[in-house]
Amino acid sequence: MNPASAQDSKPTIVLVHGAFAESSSWNGVLSQLIPKGYPTVSIANPLRGVKSDAGYVASALRSIEGSIVLVGHSYGGAVITNAVKDNNNVKALVYVAGFAPETGETAAELSGRYPGSTLAPTLAPPVGLPDGGKDLYIQQNKFHAQFAADVPANESQLMASTQRPIAEAALNEASGAPAWKSIPSWFIYGDRDLNIPAAAQAFMAKRANSKGTIVVQGASHVVMISHPDAVAKVIEHAVIAK
User: At 225, is the secondary structure helix, strand, or coil?
Assistant: First the structure.
């Protein structure tokens, strides 16, 4: 994987989706970045566990030459927090409605630390896995209101049908040492996020000494789909920052 070879002067932007989503959730953002010559990679996050998913992403990062701006949505934020692994090519982190955990914190605990998350009642009955674990999905008839209220209903239904499940254990797995303590970070989220309360995201951004925090009024949890221009702009701010 060497998307930067044709555009050595620009960093590669690596995007990591979160739970109940998939790689195409970045299409709107990619359509803003690719015409500007940015090398881009949207990684298929396995959604199996923080450590294993971060290891998978870290392997992909090691295959990229040149500087990297690493972007994570939702649970993908926890993954990028753990995926840098002393990779000196990673120059910036961008959290898009994303978790930025401290060592020992879990996604489930962070989303419940402040009031406002209504995710739990919208989950479908867990799907049992051969290893004894459980996969979680959002009920399709509740997906629009919970996950993507500011996205057209027909598009939201497609998202509901193609959602990728997350292993229940992943949401309760403790994070390792956070990359945001040593790498500059930027944050963008919506004030009507029903998965991760805006207050939780504000707390994480402040704790990480965010270089720039954008709150999109009226935006849902999938701000990168409903407001791809705003998300792309934050990523570009991270690219050009010195």
Answer: helix
